[in-house]
Design goal:
alpha/beta, Rossmann fold, Dihydrodipicolinate Reductase, domain 2, seven-stranded mixed β-sheet, 30% helix, globular, binds NADP nicotinamide-adenine-dinucleotide phosphate
Length: 336
């Protein structure tokens, strides 16, 4: 059994991770870290039938852990990762701290100096379907953001297969409220979310850099992305619709076939037949990504719609999928 610990267990992704890990056949949950120690986690989550108490991170707990999942805010996560990494432990970080390859980009995007830049080169970006070989030996996994997961899985096949240009990509994405974490803010109050929808951080959201970086690293083509996120009145789920300029005239069936072939054999990615579109309700509670592929024949725009559960494929599910690869388990262990 692999000894796993979780930091930030009281947050949304921490809760989802605990749910997945508690039914995982090959892991033993060792330590659940919080800034507030001594809380019975079974009291926080009544479905978690265990006497485990929350703890602060200690040298003993680090020694006792094979892999730690960090469900912490960015900038808080990197120093904690460094403690585990310097003790030779493996880390799956759900925050944004190790996703960007350059400390200068991190400063530009997050507005602060990177807390531990020396570890950036070590991090493997954990978009599982595209990084399996590197994940096997990774000591540090930078788990992708929720929007980047939905958008990249929709964009990459078209760019890699030369179906569309990498420039002029538009991603219009909508997320349920849990994407923002448990924090309190005026915009996230029930009265401001219920029966309401709004765009935010239009064309300047932090995830744009992460998405552009990965399109470039995976395809070798420099992208230009316009990214517009929206908050929608549901608890969880992301729907991302991406628009790409095709290089030649193509038909719906052909484009859907290219995507279908690209993801053939993938357990968690399915491509719907041309003419069908996915909905968030179809993936909530699962690690699945569902894609709908269509072409607007008048404008030659390829339109790919992607749905995920932001807390599972967009966070904790993909984190466990990555851990499964790191430890040589069936990729779907605990997830199917
Ligand atoms: N929500 C999503 O859909 C999603 C998807 C992908 C990635 N992520 C990323 O995953 C990480 C966790 O996200 P989340 O949604 O689970 O966040 P969250 O609900 O706000 O939980 C974060 C947890 O971090 C702990 N924490 C430690 N230091 C903190 C500090 N200074 N301020 C606030 N909390 C602190 C808190 O636990 P204690 O109070 O117990 O210490 C808190 O429960 C974030 O970096 C987020 O960007 C989130």
């Amino acid at each position: 059994m692999v000894k796993v610990s979780v930091a930030g267990v009281r947050g949304f992704t921490g809760e989802e991770l605990l749910r997945i890990l508690s039914r995982h056949p090959f892991v033993e949950i060792k330590h659940l870290f919080s800034r507030e120690k001594g809380l019975r986690v079974g009291d926080i989550y009544p479905w978690f039938k265990s006497e485990i108490l929350t703890e602060n991170i200690s040298a003993k707990a680090i020694g006792d852990t094979d892999v730690v999942f960090l469900c912490l805010p960015h900038t808080e996560s990197a120093p904690v990762a460094a403690k585990f990494l310097s003790a030779g432990k493996r880390v799956v970080d759900l925050s944004a701290d190790f996703r960007l390859k350059s400390a200068a980009d991190y400063k530009n995007v997050y507005g602060v100096r990177h807390p531990c830049p020396s570890y950036l080169a070590k991090a493997v970006y954990g978009l599982t379907e595209f990084r399996r070989d590197e994940l096997k030996d990774a000591q540090l996994v930078a788990n992708p953001g929720c929007y980047p997961t939905a958008v990249l899985i929709a964009v990459l096949p078209a760019v890699i297969k030369g179906l569309a240009t990498a420039t002029d990509i538009i991603a219009d994405a909508k997320s349920g409220v849990s994407g923002a974490g448990r924090k309190l803010s005026n915009e996230l109050l029930f009265s401001n979310v219920y029966e309401n929808a709004r765009a935010y951080q239009v064309a300047r959201h932090r995830h744009r850099s992460e998405i552009e970086q990965e399109i470039f690293l995976v395809s070798g083509r420099r992208p230009v992305l316009t990214f517009v996120p929206h908050l929608i009145p549901q608890k969880r789920g992301i729907i991302a619709t991406v628009y790409l300029k095709t290089k030649a005239r193509v038909k719906d069936d052909f484009a859907a076939a290219v995507y279908g072939k690209f993801y053939r054999g993938e357990k968690f990615v399915s491509v719907l037949p041309a003419g069908r579109q996915p909905a968030t309700a179809e993936v909530i509670g699962t690690n699945d990504v569902r894609l709908g592929v269509a072409v607007d024949a008048r404008s030659n725009i390829l339109i790919v719609t992607s749905v995920i559960d932001n807390l599972i494929k967009g966070a904790s599910g993909q984190a466990v999928q990555n851990m499964n690869i790191m430890f040589g388990f069936d990729e779907a262990a605990g997830l199917a």
